[in-house]
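Section 3.1: Structural characterization of target chains.
Under the original work plan, the team committed to producing a structural model for every single-chain target entering the pipeline before any wet-lab resources were allocated. The record below documents one such target. The sequence was received from the expression subgroup and is listed exactly as submitted; it comprises 381 residues.
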Amino acid sequence: MSNWGEIYKSIGVQPIINAIGSVTMLGGSTSVQEVKEAMDAADSSYVPMMELEEKAGYQIAKFTNVPAAYVTSGAGSALTLATAAFMAGDNDDFTEQLPDTTGMKNEILIQRKQHYWYDRCLELAGAKLVTFGSEDETTKADLEKAITDKTVAVHYYAEEQRIDPKALSLEDTIEIAKKNNLYVLVDAAGQIYPLENIGKYVRMGADIQCVAAKYLGAPHSVGFALGTKEAIRKLSLQSFIGYEGRRIRGVGRPQKVDRQEIIGCVVAVERWMSLNHEERLSKAETMTQTIIDKIKHIPTIDVTMIENILGVQPFGLTITPNSKADFTVEDLVEKLKSGNPPIWTRKAFFAKEGEDYMEIHMFGLNPGEEKIVGDRIVEAL
């Protein structure tokens, strides 16, 4: 495209080719055409936002086969609002008091094995994270022992791609939590394929499941919470609309969602639930193979296709420097980034200590850019 990245260049920002995937630091996602058109149509008039959120939530809940849903400013916002909802409930005085949690149950339990980068979103509402279990294993007894009179919920990080057999399962988490009248919050931001994962954890008994709509072709800044009617109603009280519409000063006011984005989210979910995913996966596989075919002859690297189709980044490939290599993955990352245009890659996100390999994903590549990536790797090596 002759105008590729010109809008960024006009203000002095260098556009890049994204071979990492859907990551926030590179802009997250590109809205699909149907979503862009729906958002443009939504721009033509104003609507009462409380009604829009209610009706949008109804549609998303219907598409995903759960009792209720609510559009939020990304999955991280859904985590924060859910936490506030669990602590404050229907008590408007508590809502206005947050993030000061005096007088409230404010402890959220999380497995030590599941402590992760985004649990910070829970603390934003004022909650205190309490870990249970060890780095090696989590048992039912570990969870039961961790519950106190200050415990309000248990948080669970769902990742179907890398299920840890030594972590406490969600089934056991829900069973123990419900026995103790605790909420269960599930971060399932990227669990959008197979389709049954969207809403699966709510149907299992969790109160709220948080999803990032950027993975479905919606704008980067949109997500949604799926849950029980009661939990989602309490979450809505904490939102930016609750702040303005009810005139109750909650912590969710900065997490605003545009009316166009809400419509875009509804359209993205509906499209995703009826999309031809075999065709989508086939395109990702073909793009992956294109890069592999261009670089597999290079004697200093071992190249493997990632055949996983779960979640947001199906297929893709790994590049591992072998015994003939006189460079590291970091060297290759820098070479690709220093070219024109820069190609952003990175050492594999889940690489263990001592492992030196790169993953390349198709999520952020425009059609044809996979050829550029392949050629540039050949040139770099």
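The chain has two domains: 6-28+276-380, 33-274.
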